[in-house]
Amino acid sequence: MNNKIIFNLKIFIFTIAILICNNLYANxxxxxxxxxxxxxxGLELETVEIDEGVFALLSNKPFTDNSGFVVGEDFVLVIDxxxxxxxxxxxxxxxxxxxxxxxxxxxxxxxxxxxxxxxxVFPKSTTIIxxxxxxxxxxxxxxxxxxxxxxxxxxxxIELFEEIVxxxxxxxxxxxxxxxxxxxxxELHYFGPGMSPSDTILYVPVSExxxxxxxxxxxxxxxxxxxxxxxxxxxxxxxxxxxxxxxxIIPGHGKISKGDIIDKYISYLDYVLKxxxxxxxxxxRIEEHVKKINIPSxxxxxxxxxxxxxxxxxxxxxNAYKQIE
Length: 325
Description:
Layout: H1 3-26, E1 45-51, E2 54-59, E3 67-71, E4 76-79, H2 85-98, E5 103-108, H3 113-116, E6 127-131, H4 132-140, H5 143-151, E7 171-173, E8 176-180, E9 185-189, E10 201-204, E11 209-213, H6 230-243, E12 248-251, E13 257-258, H7 261-282, H8 286-289, H9 306-323
Parallel strand pairs: 4-5, 5-6, 6-7, 11-12
Antiparallel strand pairs: 1-2, 2-3, 3-4, 8-9, 9-10, 10-11, 12-13
C-alpha cells in the first residue's frame, strides 16, 4: 500500500472516529464522561509576555482555548485562530496593543473548529500554515459537518458558528518547517499522531517555549487519546522528548506548565497500556470495570478539571483495552 493511500485511509478513519465520538457524546454518553467545555461566550484572553516578543494569550475560562503570538523585528506570527470571528478579532486586537507590525503568519495546530474557525477574520495578507493532514481533513469535510462535530463541546449551540466562512491554510508541511520573523526563528514540528492525526508543535528555540495544541494539555492534566491509538500517542511523545526540550509549555487548553509535563505524559501513557494489557488477560468486563477506576495520585490533577480528566482516563483505558488484538 503506497503512502498516499495510507494517508487518505488515516484521514478517513479519523473522520469516522470523530463521528463515533460525537454519537457517544450526544446519544449514549456514559455518566463518567464529560465533553470538554469549550464555549467561548464571555471568554477573555489575557496577554502574558513569556519572553521578549513571545506572548501567550490565556483563557479566563477553564479548558477553553488559549492562543498566542510571537513578535519579530519584521513580522508577527499568531498561534491558532480560536472558535469564531469574535475570538479571532480578539486575538488580532491583542496583537495590535503590543505592536504595529503585520501578522504575516497564522499557524493552525490542528483541524478542530476551536483552532481554525476564526481564520477568516485575519488579514488577506496573512499566510495560514498547517500540517498537511490538517488541511486534508478540512477540505474533505464540509463546514457544516465540522460545525456539528465540534458542537458537543458548546452544548450543541451551532449558532455560535453561524457567521463562520471557511478559510483554509494555504501552506503545508510534513515533518518540520522553519519560519523567520526577523531576529526570531520559529519551528513547526510534527512528531506523530496524538490526540488527533495532525497535532502540531510550535517551538521558539531562543526562548525554549512550545505551543502544544491538543497534544499536551496544561498543568495538572493527562492526555486524551480521542482518535488515535495510545501506542502511537506514546511514540509521538517519546519523539517529542527526543527532538526538542522546551522549558515552558503553552497548551491549547489549560494552564501554562513546565517542560517536565512531557515526561509525565510518557509515564501515564505507558501506565495505561500496561494496565489495559493486564485487564485483557484477566478478561474483565471492561465497560463495567472502567466505572471503578481512578487516575493514580502520582498524576496530580488540577481540581477544577478533575471530572474532565477522570473521564479522559476512563476513555483512554477503555480504548486501549479495545485496541489490543
